[in-house]
Every structure is written in C-alpha cells, then in structure tokens.
Hints:
- The protein has helices at residues 2-22, 27-41, 44-50, 59-81, 83-94, 98-132, 137-142, 145-148, 153-169, 175-185, 190-221, 225-229, 231-253, 255-268, 273-293, 297-326, 330-346, 355-368, 371-397, 402-412.
- The chain is globular.
- The chain is built from 20 helices and no strands.
- By secondary structure, the protein is an all-alpha fold.
- Residues 45-57, 126-148 and 404-413 have low confidence and may be disordered.
Amino acid sequence: MLVCMVVSVPIGVAAAIYLEEFAPQNILTHFIEVCINNLASIPSILFGLLGLGKMDIKKNIKKVLIRWCIILLALVAVFFWKRQAITESLGEIKKIPWWLNVLMAIFAVANLFAVGYMNSRMTRGSEEAFCAEEENASVKKNKNQEKKYPVTFMRGVVCAFFCEFYRLLTLGVATGLAQIYYYKRHGIDAGRGTGICLVQYTVQKMAIGILGLISFVILLLGGQKEVAKESGWILLAILAYLIVIAVLMAISMSEKVMKLALKLLSLLLKKRPEKLEEYSGQIRAFNQEGRVVYRDRKKIIMVFLSSFIKQICWYMVPAVMLYYTNHMNILLTLAMMSVVLLVSGVMLAPAGVGTFEYCFSLLFKPLVGVATISAVILYRFYTWIIPFFLGGIIVAYFHVPKNDKKDSQKISA
C-alpha cells in the first residue's frame, strides 16, 4: 500500500497538472479526460464487484449479479447527481398526450414483429438446407409445412418477446440462450440454433453499421455541428465497428478463417479445455450456418431489410417524441440515432446501459436541452420495459409447450 501511494501520487499530480496547464487539446487528451471522468464517477465498490469474476460460482448467475449491481448503483448515483433535471423531465413526460404514448408503443412492438420475421426466415432457410442434404428427396416433399418451418412468423414473434424478457432480466447474458432454447423446443437442435443466432447477430450488426455510416456521412456533409465536433471519435468507433463486422463475416463465410480462429482460440484457452470445446463448437456452428445463409441471396436480402425496419422502429420512439416536444426534424433524429447506436455499440457496458445514454446526451443535448433526458427515459421504457412485461406474459403462458403436454398425456394414458 505504501509503495503504491509513493509511486501513484506524484505521477497522478504531475499528470493532472500537465493535462490542465500544458497539454494540447486533441483527440488523445480528450480521450484521457473522458477516461478520468468515468473513473472518478464510478464508486470504488464497483471495481470490487468485478473481483467476483474470480469466485467459483455459476457463470451466468455471476454475470447477472455483477451487471445488476453495477446498473443499480449507477442509477442511484445518476439520480442523486441529476435529481432536478430528472424531476423536470418526469414532469414533461406527464404532459405528453396519450396518443403519442400509443404511437411510441406501436413502434416498439413493430420492432419485435420485424425480429419475429427474421427468426422465421432464418430458421426456414436452415430447415431447407437440412432437408436438401437428406438422402431421400421424397422426405423433403412429404414434410408438411409445420415440419419444414418449425418457427412460423407468429412463433418468431413469440420468440422475440420471449427473448426480450430474458434480455432485461439478465441484462443481455441469457438472450442468446433463450433464443436457442426456444428453437430447440420447436425442433431445431442446439448446434444449429447457435449458428442461426450468431448469423442473425452478425446481420443485425451489419444493419446498424450501414445505417450509422450512411447517416454519419450525410450529417457531416450537411454541416451538423454536433456530429462534426465529435467526428474524430465517431470515425474511430466506425473503424472499430467495421473491423468487428469484417471478422464476424470472415469467420462465418470462410472455412480457412474459421480454422485460423480455432487455432488462436486453442492458444488462448489452452488451460481451459471445457471453454475451448464450448467456443469451438459455437464457431463451427456459426461457420456452417453462415455458409448456408449467405448462399441464399433472396433470404439474406429479406433478413437485411427486416433488420433495417427493426432499427428504424427503434429510432422512431424518440423521434416522434422530440418532434412533438421540440419540433425536431424526424429524419434528423433518425440519422443521429443511427450514429448513436453505432458508437455506443462499440463501447463495453452491460446491455449497452450507460453508453447509449452518454452518446445520446452528447449529440442531442445541444439541440433539445432537458428533453434529452425525457427522450432517453421513454426510449428505455418502450424498448425495454414494455417488451419485458409482454415477454413475461408469454414466458408464463408458454412455459410448458403444447407438444410436451400432449406427449405427457400419451405417456400417462
């Protein structure tokens, strides 16, 4: 402890004096100041909670506990620091008419219908490829629609709500597991379900990246001051985002890249064979499903379009609210939301909590002032809370699938 104090205090004081009095204002110093502010704003107990990662408890439970502790403590801190602004925002929210709330709810639910279509379309392609590989071609012809397409459109919508319940409950830890579980309940094995989820995740990331990149260029050329001011950071985020997408695409499309990824993974997880086996299986399923999906141009185009529709429905929630309260152009809001989602997607945080709010405030506050907080609260309410409660009803109702009930009745008879 004494050695740490002797070393850290002089370095910290000297760095603070240099940054405040002598350092030039550029991207590097701005990045360092942001990091310092983030560290100063987080209670030290949160760093202690991260030490739970070394404790021998169940993986998913551990992650959920850590994330919820971080989120709750951060919410308490934000509430005390911004109490007056939040109180004013809640007062503004009360003045919003009922029809506008209904409209925002419609956009939030429409987003999940787009996800439902993606779920149905992705599994349909998987089943067609599976049937094509069967030895007897007549098996494919004789299969009824229910067998060929186990996840219909309505089942895909139910799956979307089902996953939304677990997304908020576990802060993103078990979203993919919930989707794989639902697929398995409808006749898709866990390996294929894992591949479908990973390919679908990649397509959605690509949709966010394309919308964000196009919107950034349009806003920059249009002379949007807030975007131009933060253009350096946004460009770095876009570059990082493109690298992630390129890596995911390469693994899902190329067998050579997949083998290279498996070799790197074996070096990193040499001392953890159980994790190596788990992740290797996921990468192989990702590659297998990706090569099937990307060969079907019609399907991939439809999945892309539904991903774009999903994002637009999300972005419309704050867009209609800001148009009503501040007369902000809807197209401008959609473009800036695209940039916000792209940049916040690069930053690491539990389920994106905190990073989205930070990026949203950075770009929108100079334009709409205190309405920024109202827009964030309503966005989280309609894209998190409403789907969570609707998903909870579905989870409770479909906890025991009908097929299982029929099988149990036959066994008992």
